[in-house]
Amino acid sequence: MRSCGIRTRPLLEEFNAWLALAETQALPKSPLGRAITYARNQWPALLRYLDDGRLSISNNAAERALRPFADGRKNWLFFQREGGGKTAAILMSLLMTAKAAGIHPGDYFKDVLLRLSTCTDAKMLTPHGWKQHFEVEVTERRHAVLQQILGVA
Q: For an engineered disulfide with 55, which of 26, 35, 49, 148 has Cβ 3.0 to 4.6 Å away?
């Protein structure tokens, strides 16, 4: 594993020294004192990413992935019965899998709904199966329609 802390480690060491100094000067119950205590308590976890190049100092990707679920949480309280929530969970799973696979969700859902009555292999309609079997065809069709609309030959 590669170390990603060549440039970051000295900055973190300097920040840790500042935290140690500031901790002696800030009141423990003040907002700054609480922030310093929190940072010092989380220090080992913060340094963990330096030793594993697969880890990121930021969790922004994870936060973005969870946002649709957090946004929908209040709306999901109003499903009339358990079946509605189960359907929403399945659709959300398909949506997030399609996004993770780099598939345009609108193209995917529209095409799958059109193929449901004729396609007998459910695996071909999963996001990864659809990408392998149908994405090129659907993308070419979309581009042809756009060219026709824009009058491009």
A: 49
Tell whether 96 and 80 lie within a shared domain. yes
| Enclosing domain of residue 95 | 58-100
pLDDT of 112 above 70: yes
**Six-digit token pair at 108?**
């995917």
Please state at what angle helix 31-41 crosses helix 8-25, rounded to 10 degrees. Answer: 140
CA dihedral 56, 58, 64, 65 (to 10 degrees): 30
Output helix, strand, coil percentages for the chain, rounded to the nearest 5.
75, 0, 25
Q: Is residue 121 part of a domain?
A: yes
Residues 13 and 37 in one domain: yes
Structural domain contains residue 2: no
Helix (H, G, I), strand (E, B) or coil at 121: coil
Residues with Cβ within 8 Å of residue 92, at least 6 apart in sequence: 68, 69, 72
What does the alpha-carbon distance between residue 107 and residue 112 come to, in Å, rounded to a whole number? 8
Q: Is 127 a domain residue?
A: yes
Residues 107 and 96 grouped into a single domain? no
Q: Report whether 32 contacts 79 (CB < 8 A).
A: no
Q: What's the pLDDT tens digit per position in 65-92? A: 888 777 777 776 667 777 777 888 888 8
